[in-house]
Amino acid sequence: MNKQDQLNRIKEDFINCQKVLLAIGDETRQSILLVLMGTDCQTGLRVGEITEQTHLSRPAVSHHLKVLRDAGVILMRKEGTKNFYYINVHTELGLLRSLMLDIDTFMQKFYGNDEK
User: Fold this and answer.
1) Which DSSP string do the residues of 30-89 spell out, in sequence order?
2) pLDDT per residue rounded down to tens, the chain (116 residues)
3) Dist CA 1 CA 15 (whole Å)
4) pTM, whole model, 2 decimals?
5) Which run of H or of E encompasses 99?
6) What pLDDT is attached to residue 61?
7) Which of 2, 69, 87, 102 has its CA 20 to 30 A from that of 27?
8) Among 94, 92, 55, CA closest to 73
């Protein structure tokens, strides 16, 4: 693959990652993700439990959970009237891995290994 083809691939990766990058770029959402990562992936937590651990208001947590859900980073499971939020282990975060690998490949191929 030539340089321009690889740059086009990276550009496409960036486009595919936009929602995820925006979702995880916020410090508050990062703290929510860390709380969710500290739990059993499939059990999840309710909004009230996340609120307690992050010291955020319930509306703020709900808003940030919606952004994370819309980006595909977390999922919600319903049990009756209760909603449980958990990390999506088959997540769009995999797109970030592809982006980073493509950037690394590009840098290695065209700029060599200049790490110090």
Assistant:
1) HHHHHHHHTS-TTT-B-HHHHHHHHT--HHHHHHHHHHHHHTTSEEEEEETTEEEEEE-T
2) 899 999 999 999 999 999 999 999 999 999 999 999 988 667 899 999 999 999 999 999 999 999 999 999 999 999 999 999 998 877 777 888 899 999 999 999 988 865 54
3) 20
4) 0.82
5) helix 93-111
6) 98
7) 102
8) 92
Name the helix (H) or strand (E) containing 16: helix 3-24
Sign of CA dihedral 10, 11, 17, 23: positive
**Can you tell me which residue has the tokens 């065209």?**
110
Q: Is the dihedral of CA 9, 11, 15, 19 positive or negative?
A: positive
Pair of tokens at residue 45: 């937590």
Cβ atoms 99, 10 nearer than 8 A:
yes
CB-based contacts of 60, cutoff 8 Å, min separation 6 = 28
Tokens of 12: 């496409």
Amino acid sitting at position 3: K
